[in-house]
Specification:
CHIT_BIND_RR_consensus, Cuticle_Struct_Prot, 2 domains, cuticle
């Protein structure tokens, strides 16, 4: 009997609640849903170099150029829900994806003792490691000094 009463009460509560309002940010109400492509270009050269770009009617734009899967650099921009224009410039290479933009957080500065350690390694490179590269170490030091 208790189960019957509980199930009936649950059914009555569900029916009485009625349908939920649709989310205000639905596909039909989103102006970006009707954005048109204003320009589009995609070029792939025989030597593996490529570039592409596009722009849409709602202000989204992006471009990239690179060489195969080895490296790429480009940028994209869009207007956020707050009305602010955001722009990101990036490089993607052996050091990973490296975006830069005024709105992106930046890492804390590298402590000086890390630079001292890297400089000591540079001055006395390990002789027993065949895959050690001074060029890679210099690139790492240069990248860390950017911040």
């Amino acid at each position: 009997m208790f189960r019957f009463v509980f199930a009936t009460a649950l059914l009555v509560a569900t029916v009485a609640a009625g349908p939920l309002d649709r989310v205000a940010y639905s596909h039909q109400q989103n102006p970006d849903a009707h954005a048109q492509i204003v320009s589009y270009e995609n070029v792939l050269k025989d030597d593996g170099h490529y570039n592409w770009s596009y722009e849409t009617s709602n202000g989204i734009a992006a471009h990239e150029e690179g060489l195969g899967a080895h490296n790429a650099n480009g940028a994209f921009s869009y207007t956020g829900p707050d009305g602010v224009q955001y722009r990101v410039v990036y490089v993607a290479d052996e050091n990973g994806f490296q975006p830069q933009g005024a709105h992106l957080p930046t890492p804390p500065p590298t402590p000086e003792h890390v630079f001292k350690t890297l400089e000591q390694i540079r001055a006395n490179p390990p002789k027993d490691q065949k895959d050690f590269s001074l060029e890679a170490l210099d690139a790492t030091i240069a990248r860390l000094r950017q911040y």
